[in-house]
Amino acid sequence: MRFKGFRKEITKGRYLNPFKNFEEKEILIEVRHDEITGVATRILPYRVRSAHKPDISAYLEKSPESLCPFCSPLFEKITPKFTPNIIPEGKFHRGDAWLFPNAFPYDANNTVAILSSRHFISLDELTPQTMKPAFDVCRDYFHRLAEMNFGYKYCSINWNYMPPAGGGLIHPHLQTIAGHKPTNFMQQIIFSAQNYAAAENGENLWRDLIALEKDAGERFIAHTGALSWLTSFAPKGMAGEIDFYFHEKTSFFDLTEANFEELLSGLARVFGYLYVNNFISFNMSLFAPMISNRYLWVQGKITPRFEINPIGTSDLNYFEKLHNEIICPVIPEDLCRELQLYFKG
Ligand SMILES: [Zn+2]
User: How remote is the CA of residue 46 from the centroid of ligand 1, in Å?
Assistant: First the structure.
């Protein structure tokens, strides 16, 4: 059996259009619901996209290197260290990247990994080489946790890149979470995979979803080896959502060095697309089990984020915050076609 949990409904509305002599205008509202994620999204292609790249100089002025806790000399003075049982040196270090506890944690195990000593790295400069040391320290840290037998089952690597995505500092940094319980969203997708297996003779939701999307050819961006890249049927963000799935990888510790290189190469392609399309900000999360779990293939999501001109309006509003529905002017199938060009060659 194949996954059948994507639903689409179109409703019509009408109004008298002031820009066309008050002629009657019909509008189409497409509501999508994704059973796996529980996300409902209204695809509203009549809403316009950002035509100009936002000016980042204002962010840089408000957040200069001299005040940055991730730049020297504040970095050495005011960033937290791990207790010696985790790592005697206090911080994990690879190349120019450092990983240390978050001073304002969201979780009992919430760390920060700075990419390097560079205060600002533009989206088009987020190359695999630039990102690698930071992902390496995240791996080192998760391996250390496993070695210490805390019994943690779930982890994630997360990124708020720049203030429109919730980034509190310009200085590029990842955040990790590890613990006994999955986050609410991770729990949701694990439940979906369990329910699917129960209803479909033990079949694997992720395997079937990827096969279905590949066959449909509407949202399947590329297969790059161990990874499939897709746009989401019902995006979690106003500018759409890009998803990636590691095939048959049921634990973070299944990922090899080559798998990470493939991931970073794909991320750089997505970021290149965002740069060209005037974005300066995104959220990214990679979700993974730390103890093998067939209901959670290692996977992740990227949502581009932006402020709406001319007054810097947030891309979150009452619909998403309070009604749990996303307003999305980007058509996922169009986003897929545009991204495919960046995955060629
Ligand atoms: Zn800095």
Answer: 39
- State if pTM tops 0.70: yes
**In angstroms, what is the span from residue 75 Cα to ligand 1's centroid?**
8
Q: 175: CA distance to ligand 1 center in Å?
A: 16
Contact present, 140 and 267 (Cβ < 8 Å): no
Q: Which residues are bridge partners to 327 per DSSP?
A: 42
Give the three-state DSSP class for 77: helix
- Ligand 1 centroid – CA 93 distance (Å): 17
Mean predicted confidence (pLDDT) in 222-229? 98
Q: How far apart are CA 263 and CA 245, in angstroms?
A: 10
**pLDDT for the residue 253:** 98
Q: Tell me the fold of 57-316+330-343.
A: HIT family, subunit A (3.30.428)
Q: Which helix (H) or strand (E) holds 246?
A: strand 242-246
Which residues surround the ion ligand 1 when the cut-off is CB under 5 Å?
68, 70-71, 119, 171
Number of residues written out for the chain: 345
Lowest mean pLDDT among 89-93, 223-227, 289-293, 315-319: 315-319
- 158 C-alpha vs ligand 1 centroid, how far in Å? 19
Residue 120 carries which side chain, given as an amino acid letter? F
* DSSP calls for 148-173: TT----EEEEEEEESGGGT-S-SS-E
